[in-house]
Structure formats: structure tokens, C-alpha cells
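Exercise 7. Given the encoded structure of a 206-residue chain, write a plausible sequence.
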């Protein structure tokens, strides 16, 4: 029988996008449930990727040696990928939702994917995301060896999308962690989503 891992034995690092994630954003709701730690940027209104990457790296590379799981959104996804070379060995899984288009910040996918993460990762895209077309999100997922999930037409997967706790996303997180950290038990299981999206059709490698 597999040993159960308490969620307090893992650090959940929340990496929001521009303007931070407000109280109704699924990231904020997840942070509360997971007792997570948020990456705090000096200026949430300016997407200075180098500074954002530094802040994220500082948040992960603390004296706390518990395995980290990064839950990123939008520009936070780009900062996570840019920071990856410094994060190796400290991060066990990546959950990337609605990444922003690298070109908006003077980057290209090739640069971000130059050193793809070696840990289990999932990248969730949206069919009507104004920040990155679905095909580009799928291409980025392929370049970084992440499992790609089409979440349907849910905008930028943010507060405006009105997802609440985003049960479909929580299910994806559970599946990701079952691969990355077998035995980890997440707190406060959510009810199944009212409408099943393609999240339930994802084939996970185990």
C-alpha cells in the first residue's frame, strides 16, 4: 500500500499573472485550500519578465526544502518557464493555466522551451483566450513536454471566466499530482464539475 503524503508536506507556490489574482480568482481560492504561498511581485501592473522571474525564483528557493508544486497563470507561466534552469531539483510538478503569448513580452517560444522542465507538467489552454490562441498553447505544451488540455471556451481562465473554484482544473491538479507525488492527498475534495470538459479525456502517463 502506498504511503499517504499530507498536503502540508508539499509547498504549493501560486504564480499569478498581470494585476495579480483577486479574491474570486480560482488561484486565490486554491491558495486558501492548499495553504499555499504566493509569489509577490513589486509591480503587478508591469510585466517585466526578468523581475518576475527573480521573484518567483526567490519564492521557491527558500530554506524550506519540501518539494514544490507551482500553480501558474498567464504571465506567471512564462516566469515559471524562464526560471526553470534555477528551479531544477526543487520543483516536483507544474500546473500552467492560460499562459500569455511570449511575443507580448518580447520573447519567443523557442527561448522559453530551450530547457524544458523534466517534471510532470500540465498546460491548460482555452478556445477563446485573448492572450494566447489555443493552437499556440498546444504548441507550447508540446515544446515543454507538458500534457495539453483544452478547457473549452473559458476565456483567459481568470475571474472574468466565473469559474469559482474551477472543479475541472482541480481534477487536473489531482491527476497531475498522482503522477508527480504518488500518495499525496489534497484537502477539501471538490464536487465533480457540472459540465464535463475535455479534462476528463486526458490520457496521463503513469
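Solution.
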Amino acid at each position: 500500500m502506498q504511503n499517504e503524503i499530507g498536503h502540508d508536506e508539499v509547498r504549493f507556490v501560486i504564480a499569478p499573472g498581470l494585476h495579480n489574482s483577486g479574491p474570486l480568482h480560482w488561484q486565490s481560492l486554491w491558495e486558501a485550500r492548499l495553504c499555499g504561498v504566493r509569489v509577490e511581485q513589486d509591480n503587478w501592473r508591469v510585466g517585466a519578465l526578468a523581475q518576475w522571474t527573480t521573484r518567483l525564483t526567490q519564492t521557491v528557493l527558500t530554506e524550506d526544502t519540501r518539494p514544490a508544486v507551482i500553480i501558474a497563470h498567464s504571465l506567471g507561466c512564462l516566469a515559471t518557464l524562464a526560471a526553470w534552469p534555477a528551479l531544477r531539483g526543487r520543483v516536483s510538478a507544474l500546473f500552467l493555466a492560460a499562459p500569455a503569448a511570449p511575443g507580448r513580452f518580447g520573447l519567443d517560444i523557442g527561448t522559453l522551451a530551450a530547457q524544458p522542465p523534466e517534471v510532470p507538467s500540465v498546460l491548460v489552454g482555452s478556445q477563446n483566450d485573448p492572450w494566447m490562441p489555443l493552437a499556440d498553447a498546444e504548441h507550447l505544451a508540446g515544446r515543454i513536454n507538458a500534457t495539453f488540455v483544452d478547457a473549452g471556451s473559458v476565456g483567459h481562465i481568470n475571474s472574468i471566466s466565473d469559474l469559482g473554484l474551477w472543479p475541472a482544473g482541480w481534477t487536473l491538479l489531482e491527476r497531475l499530482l498522482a503522477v508527480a507525488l504518488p500518495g499525496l492527498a489534497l484537502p477539501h475534495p471538490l464536487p465533480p464539475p457540472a459540465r464535463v470538459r475535455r479534462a476528463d479525456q486526458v490520457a496521463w502517463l503513469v
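Remark. The helical segments are 26-34, 49-60, 75-87, 109-112, 134-143, 167-180. Students should compare their own answers with the one above.
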